Amino acid sequence: MTKKGSTSRAATKGGDDLSLRELLRVPGGKPVDLAAHDARETPAGPRDKQAGQAAITALGAPLADLQERLWAASTAGDRRRVLLVLQGMDTSGKGGTVKHVIGLFNPSGCRIQAFKAPTPKELEHPFLWRIKRALPQAGELGIFDRSHYEDVLIARVRGLVPADEIERRYDEINRFEKSLADDGVTVVKCFLHISYDEQRDRLLKRLDRPDKHWKFNVSDIDDRALWPAYQRAYEIALERCSAPHAPWYLVPADHKWYRNWAVSRLLLEHLSELDPRYPKADFDVADARKRLLEQ
Amino acid sequence: MTKKGSTSRAATKGGDDLSLRELLRVPGGKPVDLAAHDARETPAGPRDKQAGQAAITALGAPLADLQERLWAASTAGDRRRVLLVLQGMDTSGKGGTVKHVIGLFNPSGCRIQAFKAPTPKELEHPFLWRIKRALPQAGELGIFDRSHYEDVLIARVRGLVPADEIERRYDEINRFEKSLADDGVTVVKCFLHISYDEQRDRLLKRLDRPDKHWKFNVSDIDDRALWPAYQRAYEIALERCSAPHAPWYLVPADHKWYRNWAVSRLLLEHLSELDPRYPKADFDVADARKRLLEQ
User: Fold this and answer.
1) Cβ contacts (< 8 Å) between A204 and chain B: which residues?
2) Given this model, what pLDDT does residue B18 score?
3) Which of A115, A119, A118 is nearest to A98 (CA)?
4) How far is it, in rounded angstroms, from Cα B2 to Cα A291?
Protein backbone atom coordinates (compact mmCIF):
# COMPACT_ATOMS: atom_id res chain seq x y z
CA MET A 1 0.00 0.00 0.00
CA THR A 2 1.18 3.51 -0.69
CA LYS A 3 1.29 6.01 2.11
CA LYS A 4 -1.66 7.84 0.56
CA GLY A 5 -3.67 4.64 0.52
CA SER A 6 -2.99 3.98 4.18
CA THR A 7 -4.11 7.43 5.17
CA SER A 8 -7.30 7.17 3.19
CA ARG A 9 -8.03 3.80 4.77
CA ALA A 10 -7.39 5.08 8.28
CA ALA A 11 -9.71 7.99 7.69
CA THR A 12 -12.67 5.70 7.31
CA LYS A 13 -12.07 3.51 10.33
CA GLY A 14 -12.96 3.92 13.96
CA GLY A 15 -9.63 3.78 15.71
CA ASP A 16 -7.88 6.52 13.79
CA ASP A 17 -6.82 10.06 14.55
CA LEU A 18 -9.38 11.79 12.38
CA SER A 19 -11.77 13.98 14.31
CA LEU A 20 -14.63 14.94 12.06
CA ARG A 21 -16.15 16.59 15.11
CA GLU A 22 -13.32 19.11 15.21
CA LEU A 23 -13.48 19.63 11.48
CA LEU A 24 -17.22 20.26 11.16
CA ARG A 25 -18.07 21.78 14.54
CA VAL A 26 -19.44 25.31 14.44
CA PRO A 27 -17.57 27.48 16.94
CA GLY A 28 -20.33 29.08 18.98
CA GLY A 29 -20.45 32.80 19.59
CA LYS A 30 -18.83 33.72 16.29
CA PRO A 31 -20.62 34.97 13.18
CA VAL A 32 -21.40 32.21 10.69
CA ASP A 33 -21.28 32.86 6.94
CA LEU A 34 -22.94 29.94 5.19
CA ALA A 35 -22.08 31.34 1.76
CA ALA A 36 -18.41 30.81 2.64
CA HIS A 37 -19.03 27.06 3.09
CA ASP A 38 -19.13 25.11 -0.16
CA ALA A 39 -21.96 22.55 0.14
CA ARG A 40 -20.17 20.38 -2.43
CA GLU A 41 -17.09 20.01 -0.23
CA THR A 42 -16.05 16.61 1.12
CA PRO A 43 -13.58 17.50 3.87
CA ALA A 44 -11.75 14.40 5.19
CA GLY A 45 -12.97 10.84 4.79
CA PRO A 46 -13.73 8.97 1.58
CA ARG A 47 -13.05 10.80 -1.67
CA ASP A 48 -15.85 9.67 -3.93
CA LYS A 49 -19.26 8.01 -3.98
CA GLN A 50 -17.97 4.45 -4.27
CA ALA A 51 -15.49 4.83 -1.42
CA GLY A 52 -18.13 6.69 0.56
CA GLN A 53 -20.67 3.92 0.32
CA ALA A 54 -18.06 1.33 1.27
CA ALA A 55 -17.07 3.46 4.25
CA ILE A 56 -20.68 3.79 5.39
CA THR A 57 -21.16 0.02 5.16
CA ALA A 58 -17.98 -0.47 7.17
CA LEU A 59 -19.34 1.82 9.90
CA GLY A 60 -22.42 -0.39 10.32
CA ALA A 61 -20.85 -3.01 12.58
CA PRO A 62 -19.06 -0.66 15.01
CA LEU A 63 -22.14 1.58 15.25
CA ALA A 64 -24.44 -1.36 15.97
CA ASP A 65 -21.95 -2.66 18.54
CA LEU A 66 -21.75 0.67 20.35
CA GLN A 67 -25.54 0.99 20.27
CA GLU A 68 -25.95 -2.45 21.83
CA ARG A 69 -23.47 -1.56 24.57
CA LEU A 70 -25.33 1.67 25.27
CA TRP A 71 -28.60 -0.25 25.51
CA ALA A 72 -27.08 -3.03 27.63
CA ALA A 73 -25.58 -0.47 30.00
CA SER A 74 -29.02 1.09 30.46
CA THR A 75 -30.36 -2.19 31.80
CA ALA A 76 -27.95 -1.75 34.73
CA GLY A 77 -28.88 1.86 35.44
CA ASP A 78 -26.69 3.82 33.00
CA ARG A 79 -29.04 6.63 31.95
CA ARG A 80 -26.95 7.94 29.06
CA ARG A 81 -28.52 8.35 25.65
CA VAL A 82 -27.89 10.13 22.37
CA LEU A 83 -30.04 12.67 20.54
CA LEU A 84 -29.34 13.35 16.88
CA VAL A 85 -30.97 16.55 15.64
CA LEU A 86 -31.31 16.92 11.87
CA GLN A 87 -32.03 20.31 10.37
CA GLY A 88 -31.71 21.70 6.87
CA MET A 89 -33.62 23.28 4.03
CA ASP A 90 -36.24 21.27 2.11
CA THR A 91 -34.58 18.41 0.17
CA SER A 92 -31.38 18.71 2.24
CA GLY A 93 -31.72 15.03 3.07
CA LYS A 94 -33.09 14.76 6.59
CA GLY A 95 -35.31 11.84 5.60
CA GLY A 96 -32.56 10.24 3.54
CA THR A 97 -30.20 10.43 6.50
CA VAL A 98 -32.72 8.66 8.72
CA LYS A 99 -33.18 5.96 6.10
CA HIS A 100 -29.52 5.33 5.35
CA VAL A 101 -27.73 6.23 8.59
CA ILE A 102 -30.27 5.23 11.21
CA GLY A 103 -30.91 2.16 9.07
CA LEU A 104 -27.46 0.97 10.22
CA PHE A 105 -28.70 0.66 13.80
CA ASN A 106 -30.95 -1.84 15.54
CA PRO A 107 -34.38 -0.24 15.09
CA SER A 108 -35.54 -1.34 18.54
CA GLY A 109 -33.12 1.10 20.20
CA CYS A 110 -34.04 4.07 18.00
CA ARG A 111 -36.74 6.61 18.82
CA ILE A 112 -37.50 8.71 15.76
CA GLN A 113 -39.68 11.77 15.74
CA ALA A 114 -40.44 13.97 12.75
CA PHE A 115 -41.71 17.42 13.73
CA LYS A 116 -44.21 18.99 11.37
CA ALA A 117 -46.06 22.28 11.71
CA PRO A 118 -47.37 22.33 15.30
CA THR A 119 -50.92 21.05 15.83
CA PRO A 120 -53.50 23.27 17.55
CA LYS A 121 -52.95 21.22 20.72
CA GLU A 122 -49.18 21.70 20.53
CA LEU A 123 -49.64 25.42 20.01
CA GLU A 124 -51.46 25.62 23.35
CA HIS A 125 -48.17 24.71 25.03
CA PRO A 126 -44.70 26.29 25.20
CA PHE A 127 -42.67 25.45 22.10
CA LEU A 128 -40.45 22.95 23.95
CA TRP A 129 -43.43 20.96 25.23
CA ARG A 130 -43.71 18.59 22.30
CA ILE A 131 -39.93 18.26 22.16
CA LYS A 132 -39.65 17.12 25.77
CA ARG A 133 -42.25 14.43 25.15
CA ALA A 134 -40.22 12.89 22.33
CA LEU A 135 -36.82 12.61 24.01
CA PRO A 136 -34.90 9.33 23.94
CA GLN A 137 -35.01 7.12 27.01
CA ALA A 138 -31.93 5.70 28.73
CA GLY A 139 -29.88 3.61 26.30
CA GLU A 140 -31.70 4.87 23.22
CA LEU A 141 -30.64 6.78 20.15
CA GLY A 142 -33.18 9.52 19.59
CA ILE A 143 -33.52 11.16 16.19
CA PHE A 144 -35.29 14.45 15.54
CA ASP A 145 -36.18 15.12 11.90
CA ARG A 146 -36.62 18.88 12.40
CA SER A 147 -36.81 20.01 15.99
CA HIS A 148 -37.22 22.94 18.37
CA TYR A 149 -34.99 24.89 15.98
CA GLU A 150 -37.97 25.32 13.67
CA ASP A 151 -39.22 27.71 16.35
CA VAL A 152 -36.34 30.08 15.60
CA LEU A 153 -36.19 29.32 11.86
CA ILE A 154 -39.58 29.32 10.13
CA ALA A 155 -40.97 31.23 13.12
CA ARG A 156 -38.38 33.96 12.49
CA VAL A 157 -38.56 34.00 8.69
CA ARG A 158 -42.34 33.98 8.58
CA GLY A 159 -42.73 36.25 11.59
CA LEU A 160 -44.97 33.73 13.36
CA VAL A 161 -44.12 35.19 16.77
CA PRO A 162 -42.89 38.62 17.91
CA ALA A 163 -39.18 39.37 17.48
CA ASP A 164 -38.48 39.63 21.21
CA GLU A 165 -40.01 36.20 21.74
CA ILE A 166 -37.65 34.78 19.09
CA GLU A 167 -34.75 36.41 20.91
CA ARG A 168 -35.75 34.78 24.18
CA ARG A 169 -36.02 31.38 22.52
CA TYR A 170 -32.29 31.12 21.74
CA ASP A 171 -31.53 31.40 25.44
CA GLU A 172 -34.30 29.01 26.31
CA ILE A 173 -32.96 26.47 23.83
CA ASN A 174 -29.47 26.81 25.28
CA ARG A 175 -30.74 26.27 28.82
CA PHE A 176 -32.83 23.30 27.68
CA GLU A 177 -29.92 21.64 25.88
CA LYS A 178 -27.64 22.25 28.87
CA SER A 179 -30.16 20.50 31.09
CA LEU A 180 -30.25 17.59 28.64
CA ALA A 181 -26.45 17.32 28.70
CA ASP A 182 -26.47 17.46 32.51
CA ASP A 183 -29.00 14.62 32.47
CA GLY A 184 -26.81 12.34 30.35
CA VAL A 185 -27.99 13.19 26.85
CA THR A 186 -25.30 13.49 24.19
CA VAL A 187 -26.78 16.06 21.82
CA VAL A 188 -25.47 15.91 18.24
CA LYS A 189 -26.91 18.59 15.98
CA CYS A 190 -26.33 18.37 12.24
CA PHE A 191 -27.15 21.16 9.83
CA LEU A 192 -27.36 19.56 6.40
CA HIS A 193 -25.99 22.32 4.19
CA ILE A 194 -27.11 22.26 0.57
CA SER A 195 -26.69 24.87 -2.14
CA TYR A 196 -29.46 26.85 -3.79
CA ASP A 197 -28.75 25.15 -7.11
CA GLU A 198 -28.77 21.67 -5.62
CA GLN A 199 -32.16 22.31 -4.06
CA ARG A 200 -33.60 23.33 -7.41
CA ASP A 201 -32.22 20.18 -9.03
CA ARG A 202 -33.70 18.00 -6.30
CA LEU A 203 -37.09 19.68 -6.44
CA LEU A 204 -37.16 19.35 -10.23
CA LYS A 205 -36.31 15.66 -9.93
CA ARG A 206 -39.28 15.19 -7.62
CA LEU A 207 -41.48 16.79 -10.26
CA ASP A 208 -40.07 14.52 -12.97
CA ARG A 209 -41.06 11.36 -11.11
CA PRO A 210 -44.74 10.63 -10.40
CA ASP A 211 -43.65 8.31 -7.55
CA LYS A 212 -42.03 11.36 -5.89
CA HIS A 213 -44.91 13.80 -6.28
CA TRP A 214 -46.20 12.97 -2.82
CA LYS A 215 -42.97 14.43 -1.41
CA PHE A 216 -43.55 17.72 -3.16
CA ASN A 217 -45.34 20.62 -1.53
CA VAL A 218 -46.09 23.78 -3.44
CA SER A 219 -45.18 25.63 -0.24
CA ASP A 220 -41.60 24.43 -0.81
CA ILE A 221 -41.42 26.87 -3.74
CA ASP A 222 -42.64 29.71 -1.51
CA ASP A 223 -40.04 28.80 1.11
CA ARG A 224 -37.37 28.68 -1.56
CA ALA A 225 -38.20 32.27 -2.48
CA LEU A 226 -37.20 33.12 1.10
CA TRP A 227 -33.84 31.31 0.79
CA PRO A 228 -31.66 34.26 1.94
CA ALA A 229 -33.84 34.84 5.01
CA TYR A 230 -33.69 31.13 5.92
CA GLN A 231 -29.92 31.04 5.46
CA ARG A 232 -29.65 34.07 7.74
CA ALA A 233 -31.92 32.43 10.33
CA TYR A 234 -29.71 29.32 10.26
CA GLU A 235 -26.57 31.44 10.63
CA ILE A 236 -27.97 33.07 13.75
CA ALA A 237 -29.12 29.76 15.26
CA LEU A 238 -25.73 28.15 14.58
CA GLU A 239 -23.89 31.11 16.07
CA ARG A 240 -26.03 31.40 19.18
CA CYS A 241 -26.74 27.75 19.93
CA SER A 242 -23.53 25.85 19.26
CA ALA A 243 -22.18 25.01 22.71
CA PRO A 244 -19.49 22.51 23.75
CA HIS A 245 -22.15 20.30 25.38
CA ALA A 246 -24.50 20.55 22.38
CA PRO A 247 -22.47 21.40 19.29
CA TRP A 248 -23.79 22.17 15.84
CA TYR A 249 -22.04 20.44 12.97
CA LEU A 250 -22.09 22.02 9.54
CA VAL A 251 -22.36 19.04 7.20
CA PRO A 252 -21.81 19.71 3.48
CA ALA A 253 -24.76 17.87 1.96
CA ASP A 254 -24.82 18.39 -1.79
CA HIS A 255 -23.28 14.91 -2.03
CA LYS A 256 -25.67 12.47 -0.41
CA TRP A 257 -22.96 9.86 0.12
CA TYR A 258 -20.78 12.38 1.95
CA ARG A 259 -23.70 13.56 4.10
CA ASN A 260 -24.50 9.97 5.10
CA TRP A 261 -20.87 9.16 5.83
CA ALA A 262 -20.33 12.35 7.82
CA VAL A 263 -23.39 11.89 10.05
CA SER A 264 -22.50 8.22 10.61
CA ARG A 265 -18.95 9.17 11.45
CA LEU A 266 -20.05 11.93 13.86
CA LEU A 267 -22.27 9.43 15.66
CA LEU A 268 -19.38 6.96 15.81
CA GLU A 269 -17.07 9.55 17.36
CA HIS A 270 -19.64 10.55 19.98
CA LEU A 271 -20.58 6.96 20.82
CA SER A 272 -16.92 5.95 21.02
CA GLU A 273 -16.30 8.74 23.48
CA LEU A 274 -19.21 7.55 25.64
CA ASP A 275 -17.59 4.10 25.58
CA PRO A 276 -20.62 2.29 27.06
CA ARG A 277 -19.82 -1.05 28.72
CA TYR A 278 -21.72 -4.30 29.03
CA PRO A 279 -22.81 -4.60 32.66
CA LYS A 280 -21.42 -7.36 34.80
CA ALA A 281 -23.81 -10.19 35.72
CA ASP A 282 -25.84 -9.38 38.83
CA PHE A 283 -26.52 -13.10 39.41
CA ASP A 284 -24.51 -16.25 40.07
CA VAL A 285 -23.61 -17.48 36.58
CA ALA A 286 -22.40 -20.92 37.71
CA ASP A 287 -25.56 -21.47 39.74
CA ALA A 288 -27.77 -20.42 36.83
CA ARG A 289 -25.94 -22.85 34.53
CA LYS A 290 -26.36 -25.65 37.06
CA ARG A 291 -30.08 -25.00 37.42
CA LEU A 292 -30.55 -24.95 33.65
CA LEU A 293 -28.71 -28.23 33.15
CA GLU A 294 -30.89 -29.85 35.80
CA GLN A 295 -34.13 -28.84 34.07
CA MET B 1 -31.87 -25.18 -14.45
CA THR B 2 -33.55 -28.30 -13.18
CA LYS B 3 -37.22 -28.19 -12.37
CA LYS B 4 -36.38 -28.49 -8.69
CA GLY B 5 -34.08 -25.47 -8.90
CA SER B 6 -36.77 -23.37 -10.55
CA THR B 7 -39.27 -24.20 -7.88
CA SER B 8 -36.88 -23.35 -5.08
CA ARG B 9 -36.05 -20.04 -6.75
CA ALA B 10 -39.69 -19.13 -7.24
CA ALA B 11 -40.42 -19.89 -3.63
CA THR B 12 -38.19 -17.06 -2.47
CA LYS B 13 -39.52 -14.38 -4.79
CA GLY B 14 -42.44 -12.00 -4.49
CA GLY B 15 -44.50 -12.73 -7.55
CA ASP B 16 -44.86 -16.47 -7.09
CA ASP B 17 -47.68 -18.75 -6.10
CA LEU B 18 -46.37 -19.65 -2.66
CA SER B 19 -48.66 -18.58 0.15
CA LEU B 20 -46.80 -18.85 3.40
CA ARG B 21 -49.89 -17.33 4.99
CA GLU B 22 -51.93 -20.38 4.10
CA LEU B 23 -49.17 -22.71 5.20
CA LEU B 24 -48.52 -21.21 8.64
CA ARG B 25 -51.92 -19.79 9.55
CA VAL B 26 -53.52 -21.24 12.66
CA PRO B 27 -57.12 -22.23 11.93
CA GLY B 28 -59.11 -20.54 14.65
CA GLY B 29 -61.61 -22.40 16.74
CA LYS B 30 -59.79 -25.73 16.55
CA PRO B 31 -57.60 -27.25 19.26
CA VAL B 32 -53.91 -26.51 18.79
CA ASP B 33 -51.25 -29.07 19.75
CA LEU B 34 -47.89 -27.34 19.79
CA ALA B 35 -46.07 -30.60 20.48
CA ALA B 36 -47.22 -31.80 17.08
CA HIS B 37 -45.40 -28.92 15.40
CA ASP B 38 -41.67 -29.46 14.97
CA ALA B 39 -39.93 -26.17 15.76
CA ARG B 40 -37.00 -27.25 13.58
CA GLU B 41 -39.19 -27.50 10.48
CA THR B 42 -38.62 -25.24 7.49
CA PRO B 43 -41.84 -25.62 5.48
CA ALA B 44 -41.51 -23.98 2.04
CA GLY B 45 -38.99 -21.34 1.10
CA PRO B 46 -35.21 -21.56 1.26
CA ARG B 47 -33.75 -24.88 2.31
CA ASP B 48 -30.72 -23.89 4.37
CA LYS B 49 -29.08 -21.01 6.18
CA GLN B 50 -27.14 -19.68 3.20
CA ALA B 51 -30.16 -19.70 0.91
CA GLY B 52 -32.25 -18.27 3.72
CA GLN B 53 -30.01 -15.29 4.26
CA ALA B 54 -29.86 -14.62 0.53
CA ALA B 55 -33.66 -14.81 0.38
CA ILE B 56 -34.01 -12.37 3.28
CA THR B 57 -31.65 -9.92 1.60
CA ALA B 58 -33.65 -10.26 -1.62
CA LEU B 59 -36.85 -9.37 0.26
CA GLY B 60 -35.35 -6.07 1.43
CA ALA B 61 -36.03 -4.07 -1.73
CA PRO B 62 -39.68 -5.14 -2.30
CA LEU B 63 -40.49 -4.68 1.41
CA ALA B 64 -38.98 -1.19 1.48
CA ASP B 65 -40.82 -0.32 -1.73
CA LEU B 66 -44.17 -1.47 -0.35
CA GLN B 67 -43.52 0.39 2.90
CA GLU B 68 -42.79 3.61 1.02
CA ARG B 69 -46.00 3.21 -0.97
CA LEU B 70 -47.99 2.65 2.21
CA TRP B 71 -46.47 5.78 3.72
CA ALA B 72 -46.94 7.83 0.55
CA ALA B 73 -50.58 6.76 0.34
CA SER B 74 -51.11 7.94 3.91
CA THR B 75 -50.13 11.48 2.91
CA ALA B 76 -53.20 11.50 0.67
CA GLY B 77 -55.60 10.19 3.32
CA ASP B 78 -55.15 6.41 3.11
CA ARG B 79 -55.38 5.37 6.76
CA ARG B 80 -54.21 1.80 6.33
CA ARG B 81 -51.36 0.51 8.47
CA VAL B 82 -49.83 -2.77 9.54
CA LEU B 83 -49.31 -4.17 13.02
CA LEU B 84 -46.87 -7.02 13.52
CA VAL B 85 -47.32 -8.79 16.86
CA LEU B 86 -44.41 -10.94 18.02
CA GLN B 87 -44.92 -13.47 20.77
CA GLY B 88 -42.91 -16.45 21.94
CA MET B 89 -41.12 -17.99 24.89
CA ASP B 90 -37.93 -16.37 26.22
CA THR B 91 -35.11 -16.60 23.64
CA SER B 92 -37.59 -17.39 20.85
CA GLY B 93 -36.16 -14.47 18.91
CA LYS B 94 -38.59 -11.58 19.22
CA GLY B 95 -35.71 -9.11 19.55
CA GLY B 96 -33.71 -10.79 16.80
CA THR B 97 -36.69 -10.57 14.47
CA VAL B 98 -37.00 -6.83 15.11
CA LYS B 99 -33.28 -6.38 14.44
CA HIS B 100 -33.07 -8.45 11.27
CA VAL B 101 -36.55 -8.17 9.74
CA ILE B 102 -37.60 -4.68 10.75
CA GLY B 103 -34.04 -3.62 9.94
CA LEU B 104 -35.00 -4.17 6.29
CA PHE B 105 -37.49 -1.29 6.46
CA ASN B 106 -37.05 2.47 6.55
CA PRO B 107 -36.89 3.13 10.30
CA SER B 108 -38.84 6.39 9.99
CA GLY B 109 -42.00 4.48 9.10
CA CYS B 110 -41.70 1.92 11.91
CA ARG B 111 -43.22 2.31 15.36
CA ILE B 112 -41.75 -0.28 17.71
CA GLN B 113 -43.00 -0.97 21.19
CA ALA B 114 -41.65 -3.58 23.59
CA PHE B 115 -44.09 -4.45 26.36
CA LYS B 116 -42.55 -5.36 29.70
CA ALA B 117 -44.28 -6.16 32.97
CA PRO B 118 -46.95 -3.46 33.40
CA THR B 119 -45.96 -0.42 35.44
CA PRO B 120 -48.05 0.60 38.46
CA LYS B 121 -49.60 3.34 36.29
CA GLU B 122 -50.46 0.86 33.55
CA LEU B 123 -52.02 -1.48 36.12
CA GLU B 124 -54.45 1.27 37.06
CA HIS B 125 -55.97 0.96 33.59
CA PRO B 126 -57.68 -1.86 31.64
CA PHE B 127 -55.12 -4.19 30.10
CA LEU B 128 -55.66 -2.84 26.57
CA TRP B 129 -55.00 0.76 27.62
CA ARG B 130 -51.25 0.73 27.07
CA ILE B 131 -51.73 -1.25 23.85
CA LYS B 132 -54.09 1.33 22.34
CA ARG B 133 -51.56 4.09 23.04
CA ALA B 134 -48.83 2.33 21.06
CA LEU B 135 -50.72 1.55 17.84
CA PRO B 136 -49.23 2.48 14.48
CA GLN B 137 -50.47 5.61 12.77
CA ALA B 138 -51.69 5.74 9.16
CA GLY B 139 -48.97 4.55 6.77
CA GLU B 140 -46.83 3.05 9.51
CA LEU B 141 -45.61 -0.43 10.28
CA GLY B 142 -46.16 -1.02 13.98
CA ILE B 143 -44.26 -3.74 15.79
CA PHE B 144 -45.20 -5.16 19.18
CA ASP B 145 -42.45 -7.12 20.94
CA ARG B 146 -44.84 -8.94 23.31
CA SER B 147 -48.34 -7.51 23.46
CA HIS B 148 -51.82 -7.74 25.00
CA TYR B 149 -51.40 -11.51 24.72
CA GLU B 150 -49.17 -11.43 27.79
CA ASP B 151 -52.42 -10.70 29.63
CA VAL B 152 -53.70 -14.18 28.78
CA LEU B 153 -50.30 -15.90 28.92
CA ILE B 154 -48.21 -14.99 31.96
CA ALA B 155 -51.40 -13.71 33.60
CA ARG B 156 -52.93 -17.18 33.17
CA VAL B 157 -49.85 -19.23 34.03
CA ARG B 158 -48.98 -17.18 37.10
CA GLY B 159 -52.60 -16.68 38.13
CA LEU B 160 -52.19 -12.90 38.19
CA VAL B 161 -55.92 -12.37 37.70
CA PRO B 162 -58.98 -14.53 38.41
CA ALA B 163 -59.79 -17.28 35.92
CA ASP B 164 -63.10 -15.73 34.83
CA GLU B 165 -61.31 -12.49 34.04
CA ILE B 166 -58.86 -14.40 31.83
CA GLU B 167 -61.84 -15.98 30.07
CA ARG B 168 -63.36 -12.58 29.36
CA ARG B 169 -60.07 -11.29 27.97
CA TYR B 170 -60.07 -13.63 24.95
CA ASP B 171 -63.36 -12.14 23.83
CA GLU B 172 -62.18 -8.65 24.57
CA ILE B 173 -59.03 -9.23 22.51
CA ASN B 174 -61.11 -10.55 19.63
CA ARG B 175 -63.41 -7.53 19.72
CA PHE B 176 -60.42 -5.19 19.93
CA GLU B 177 -58.63 -6.78 16.98
CA LYS B 178 -61.83 -6.73 14.94
CA SER B 179 -62.16 -3.01 15.59
CA LEU B 180 -58.54 -2.55 14.47
CA ALA B 181 -59.20 -4.45 11.26
CA ASP B 182 -62.35 -2.40 10.64
CA ASP B 183 -60.25 0.72 11.10
CA GLY B 184 -57.70 -0.27 8.44
CA VAL B 185 -55.11 -2.09 10.51
CA THR B 186 -53.68 -5.26 9.00
CA VAL B 187 -52.89 -7.35 12.06
CA VAL B 188 -50.16 -9.99 11.57
CA LYS B 189 -49.54 -12.11 14.67
CA CYS B 190 -46.51 -14.39 14.75
CA PHE B 191 -45.94 -17.00 17.41
CA LEU B 192 -42.24 -17.82 17.31
CA HIS B 193 -42.26 -21.51 18.17
CA ILE B 194 -39.07 -22.90 19.70
CA SER B 195 -38.42 -26.26 21.31
CA TYR B 196 -37.61 -26.88 24.96
CA ASP B 197 -34.12 -28.08 24.05
CA GLU B 198 -33.40 -25.10 21.83
CA GLN B 199 -34.34 -22.73 24.65
CA ARG B 200 -31.90 -24.45 26.99
CA ASP B 201 -29.12 -24.15 24.41
CA ARG B 202 -29.83 -20.47 23.88
CA LEU B 203 -29.96 -19.72 27.59
CA LEU B 204 -26.70 -21.59 28.15
CA LYS B 205 -25.07 -19.62 25.33
CA ARG B 206 -26.08 -16.40 27.06
CA LEU B 207 -24.39 -17.64 30.20
CA ASP B 208 -21.23 -18.53 28.29
CA ARG B 209 -20.77 -15.00 26.98
CA PRO B 210 -20.21 -12.11 29.41
CA ASP B 211 -21.46 -9.70 26.72
CA LYS B 212 -24.80 -11.53 26.80
CA HIS B 213 -25.25 -11.68 30.57
CA TRP B 214 -27.34 -8.50 30.51
CA LYS B 215 -29.94 -10.39 28.47
CA PHE B 216 -30.22 -13.09 31.11
CA ASN B 217 -32.79 -12.98 33.88
CA VAL B 218 -32.83 -15.58 36.61
CA SER B 219 -36.62 -15.44 36.33
CA ASP B 220 -36.22 -16.99 32.85
CA ILE B 221 -35.26 -20.23 34.61
CA ASP B 222 -38.37 -20.06 36.77
CA ASP B 223 -40.53 -19.46 33.69
CA ARG B 224 -38.83 -22.38 31.96
CA ALA B 225 -39.92 -24.64 34.80
CA LEU B 226 -43.47 -23.69 33.81
CA TRP B 227 -42.90 -24.63 30.15
CA PRO B 228 -45.91 -27.00 29.85
CA ALA B 229 -48.26 -24.42 31.37
CA TYR B 230 -46.99 -21.72 28.98
CA GLN B 231 -47.33 -24.01 25.98
CA ARG B 232 -50.89 -24.74 27.05
CA ALA B 233 -51.63 -21.03 27.48
CA TYR B 234 -50.30 -20.38 23.97
CA GLU B 235 -52.39 -23.20 22.55
CA ILE B 236 -55.53 -21.69 24.03
CA ALA B 237 -54.69 -18.19 22.82
CA LEU B 238 -53.94 -19.45 19.31
CA GLU B 239 -57.15 -21.44 19.22
CA ARG B 240 -59.40 -18.70 20.53
CA CYS B 241 -57.84 -15.63 18.92
CA SER B 242 -56.89 -16.61 15.39
CA ALA B 243 -59.47 -14.90 13.20
CA PRO B 244 -59.48 -14.29 9.44
CA HIS B 245 -59.04 -10.54 10.04
CA ALA B 246 -56.28 -11.07 12.62
CA PRO B 247 -54.64 -14.46 12.03
CA TRP B 248 -52.04 -16.14 14.16
CA TYR B 249 -49.10 -17.64 12.30
CA LEU B 250 -47.21 -20.50 13.85
CA VAL B 251 -43.60 -19.82 12.84
CA PRO B 252 -41.08 -22.63 13.45
CA ALA B 253 -38.23 -20.71 15.08
CA ASP B 254 -35.49 -23.10 16.10
CA HIS B 255 -33.67 -21.94 12.96
CA LYS B 256 -33.13 -18.21 13.21
CA TRP B 257 -32.69 -17.81 9.46
CA TYR B 258 -36.00 -19.53 8.80
CA ARG B 259 -37.79 -17.45 11.41
CA ASN B 260 -36.45 -14.23 9.86
CA TRP B 261 -37.32 -15.32 6.36
CA ALA B 262 -40.81 -16.47 7.33
CA VAL B 263 -41.73 -13.25 9.14
CA SER B 264 -40.33 -11.17 6.26
CA ARG B 265 -42.26 -13.25 3.79
CA LEU B 266 -45.52 -12.99 5.77
CA LEU B 267 -45.13 -9.21 5.83
CA LEU B 268 -44.47 -9.21 2.10
CA GLU B 269 -47.61 -11.21 1.41
CA HIS B 270 -49.77 -8.95 3.55
CA LEU B 271 -48.28 -5.73 2.15
CA SER B 272 -48.62 -7.03 -1.41
CA GLU B 273 -52.28 -7.69 -0.79
CA LEU B 274 -52.76 -4.15 0.50
CA ASP B 275 -51.13 -2.96 -2.73
CA PRO B 276 -50.73 0.66 -1.58
CA ARG B 277 -50.39 3.22 -4.38
CA TYR B 278 -48.44 6.43 -4.73
CA PRO B 279 -50.99 9.24 -4.68
CA LYS B 280 -51.49 11.40 -7.74
CA ALA B 281 -50.18 14.97 -7.55
CA ASP B 282 -52.72 17.34 -6.01
CA PHE B 283 -51.01 20.33 -7.65
CA ASP B 284 -50.20 21.54 -11.17
CA VAL B 285 -46.88 19.85 -11.94
CA ALA B 286 -46.14 21.93 -15.05
CA ASP B 287 -46.84 25.15 -13.18
CA ALA B 288 -44.61 24.08 -10.28
CA ARG B 289 -41.78 23.29 -12.70
CA LYS B 290 -42.19 26.66 -14.39
CA ARG B 291 -42.08 28.53 -11.09
CA LEU B 292 -38.97 26.63 -9.99
CA LEU B 293 -37.12 27.34 -13.21
CA GLU B 294 -37.91 31.05 -12.84
CA GLN B 295 -36.43 31.25 -9.36
Assistant:
1) 289, 292-293
2) 85
3) A115
4) 51
One-letter identity of residue A137: Q
Among B76, B98, B295, whose Cβ lies nearest the Cβ of A225?
Answer: B295
What's the pTM? Answer: 0.93
Residue A200 pLDDT exceeds 80: yes
pLDDT reported for residue B11? 40
Q: How far apart are CA B252 and CA B151, in angstroms?
A: 23
Q: What is the ipTM of this complex?
A: 0.91
* Burial of residue B93 (number of CB atoms within 10 Å: 0-12, 13-18, 19+): buried
Among candidate residues B198, B279, B260, the one with its CA nearest the CA of residue B60: B260
Which of helix, strand or coil describes residue B88? strand
| Cα–Cα distance for residue pair A258/A45, rounded to 1 Å | 8
At B6, the pLDDT band (50, 70, 90 cuts) reads very low
Q: For residues B266 and B21, is the Cβ–Cβ distance under 8 A?
A: yes
Task: Provide mean pLDDT across the span B85-102.
Answer: 98
Residues of chain A in contact with residue B102, where contact means CB-CB under 8 angstroms, are: 107-108
DSSP structural state of residue B244: T
Contact A95 B108 (CB under 8 A): yes
Side chain identity, residue A262 = A
Q: CA-to-CA distance for A170 and A155, rounded, in angstroms?
A: 12
